[in-house]
Each structure stands twice: as structure tokens, then as C-alpha cells.
Amino acid sequence: MDHLLSLDRRDLLKAATGLLTGLVVAGTPLARIARGRAWAVDLMVFSSSEAATLLAVARTICPHDKLEDLAYALVIQAVDGQARKDEHARKMIRDGIAGLGAAFATNTENDRVDTLGKLESSPFFQFMRLNTVQTLYSTPIAYAYFGYEGEAFSKGGYLFRGFNDLRWLPEVAPEDGGPMTAGA
């Protein structure tokens, strides 16, 4: 069983590595603001300074200090895609960026939190919060960071692949454990 778990994790890490490798393209706007490893995503609507501000917004809304910027950059890429398709969204996002000020991306985290707190009920903040949560937590990069192996249905479910491998709990006598499915 441990062998199956390590293969699943390995496959997940392979997929995340493949995604990272596939996204490395020099010269795109987000490549200039990246920390750490070299990576880039293509943006069609936003400039690198606008992208840096949106990246700071996403990092402030869902702060994970050790999560790579690439995971947040995928949020900005999704927002850019929506802005490309919808003129109203593009205007709302640009107005929101302008309202944050030019120095938002370089402000301290406390200052960014205070600034966003004042905009919490605005359509811009709600749009960014929704897109950040939906996109950030559905990427293989975040899955690997949080140790999530993905959905289990296609792998036969959780019961026989680690759901019941809590080694820190005492063993329960079979008569106290409740009904078991066939094959257990």
C-alpha cells in the first residue's frame, strides 16, 4: 500500500514539474517579477507592473509564505484570460489596480491587508478573492505544497489507499469498528 501512495505522489510531482517546465518562457511580463526559480506565464492584457500588483493582491488574500509565486502567477493568468474576454471585467480590474496605488506591490504585508480591508466589499476585491481561491487551490503546485494527492475516485477511492492509515490512533477491535465493505 505504501508503494501505491508513493507512486501517486510521484505522479503528482511529475505533473507539477511538467507544468513548471512547460511554463518557462523568457520575456513574458510575469517573468520579470518572479522570485526563486525561473518561470513565466503569458499575459495578453496586463503589463508587468499591473501583474505585480495583482500578484501582491492574490498573495495578500491567500498568504502562504513558502508557496511559489508560480502558483499565484497562474491566478493572474486566469484573471488575464477573463479580462481578455470581458471588457467590463478588464475595466473593473484596471480601476481596482489604480485604486490600490502604484506602490501596493512593494508595501508591507500589514499595509496591503489594511488597503484590501477597505476594498473588501468592492466588486474588484470580490472578483480577485473568488478567482484567487478557485484557481490557486486547484493547481498541482498547491496540491503538492499542501500534500493533497487529488481526487480519489479514479484511483479506487480513499478506503484502500491510505484513508485508514492513521498510525497515531490505537487499533480498534473489529467488533467495535462498524460495518466493513467486502475485501477489507
Question: What's the layout of helices and strands?
Answer:
Elements: H1 2-23, H2 48-61, H3 69-85, H4 87-100, H5 109-118, H6 123-136, H7 140-146, H8 159-163
The structural domain count equals 1
Overall 3D form: elongated
**Broad structural category:** mainly alpha
Mean pLDDT: 81
User: Helical amount among residues, as a percent range?
Assistant: 55-70%
**What distance separates the N and C termini?**
13 Å
Low-confidence stretches: 1-7, 24-34
Task: Report on this structure.
This protein is mainly alpha-helical and 184 residues long. The protein has one domain. 56% of the residues lie in helices and 0% in strands. The protein has eight helices and no strands. Helix 1 crosses helix 7 and helix 3 packs across helix 6. It is elongated and about 65 Å long. The two termini are 13 Å apart. The N terminus is likely disordered.
Task: Provide a compact summary of the structure.
By secondary structure, this protein is mainly alpha-helical. It is built from eight helices and no strands. α2 (48-61) packs across α3.
Characteristic key phrases:
184 residues; mainly alpha; 8 helices; elongated; disordered N terminus
